[in-house]
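Reviewers of the previous submission asked for a worked example of the structure-prediction workflow described in the proposal, so we include one complete record here. The input consisted solely of the amino acid sequence. No template or homolog information was supplied to the procedure at any stage.
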Amino acid sequence: MDRVLVLDFGSQYNQLIARRVRELKVYSEIVPHDISAGAILERNAQALILSGGPASVRQRGAPAPDPAIFNLGIPILGICYGMQVTAQMLGGRVSGRHQREYGHALFRTRGRSPLFAGLPGVLQAWMSHGDTVTELPDGFITIGYTDSVACAAFANDDRRVYGVQFHPEVEHTPLGRKILANFVLKIARARPTWTMRSFIHEQTREIRARVGSEKVLCAVSGGVDSSVLAALLARAVGRKLVAVFVDNGVLRKDEARQVRKALGPRMNLKVIGARERFLTKLAGVSDPERKRKIIGHEFIRVFEEQAKRHGPIRFLAQGTLYPDLIESRSAFGGPSATIKTHHNVGGLPKEMKLELIEPLKELFKDEVRALGKALRLPGSLISRHPFPGPGLAVRILGAVSAERVRLLQDADHIFISELHRAGLYDKVWQALAVLLPVRSVGVMGDERTYENVVCLRAVTSTDAMTADWARLPDDFLARCSNRIINEVRGINRVVYDVSSKPPATIEWE
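From that input alone, the workflow returned the following structure tokens.
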């Protein structure tokens, strides 16, 4: 299978490059920026893409690729920092004295380049750089520029090495997909053979090879990720799958009953009541990172107990996705910054008796949904909004208690049910309610109240890496507010979140 390797130089959006390549039905994976040329050959790479990153090539110790990659004869595309490091390593010069570019820019092509085949001479591009290539390496020519930067793209057609200063992978470069398609399909001539069907075949083979005759314990939450994971495992290992659902006390309203009804008939599902156990551990804890780590550790302990009871069981499967890994740490060795710890990534205990299996860790949420369709899961299950592993614990700002969980469960249930009723649920990527750590003065029945505040949030997105707040109708929000205040005793004020990602994240903690 042809593949394109993305060398990770630390951009928070480098995984979008891999996503765009996969949309072309060519398999792509992110690898450390300093992967050796020999390892690249072993992976049968058809092309390399050098990602952007926060560093400057002019800094001492700036990340750099193995110089031998430029002698492999494999097509290379450098994006932003990737373009700059390519220029510098091949004998060009990069300067920080010229005008910086951030945001939208008009990019103009120069000459005829296969990288821009079929594109207009002027196109909108998204810039985010302070350094600029000021001298080209020998054999390279400028193939694009902006009003601020004389060389915003370069090429050496003989060596099939290219660089663009802008980011073709983001939505803000509308024709960026076409540029990547030109590079991957025409210049590199990669074959578009990667689909969810091929993913199922490959993962089934890998899981069976690793597991052998052993049992696999699968953590099931009832959400899209874990449900798709369980279906994939059931296909791969059959009766050797032990699916465990933990009712940890911070789930959505009636979640345990719904999960048992939806998944119980499909697999060997064990429902574990652990509400008091988790709430006791969380009592008095306000820091979101501590909440995630506590929940992550406690989940593992419960799974270890279940593995012992139903074992021997050696493997634990989790529905970890690409965004989980990227936001928790640089999953592939790059210098990316940590945004937040996900309970099933950075929150896992260092000493764990079970070996992890994470077949979905290279997929985005929309790819998981496509995988679920390929596995013939019901649409009602595949279309559910994302729900964080730590549950409502990270939607309750401040300390978690049974009473605060009840308040948020009831408010969230009203919000979600109203979205379904209005036909809006499938039009937003994710919707949630957040219980704020403040109280406000109100008036109910001519009496003064001093009660809790809940914030409603709904966003539109395609991959959860960027998101915009959803413009829900005023009358809809009014109806939600009215129902929550009237029906949830203990809440007297409802607000709506109008923040996008970035700079905010979708979840509050």
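Residues 304 and 353 are 7 Å apart (CA to CA). We consider this example representative of the routine output the project will generate in years two and three.
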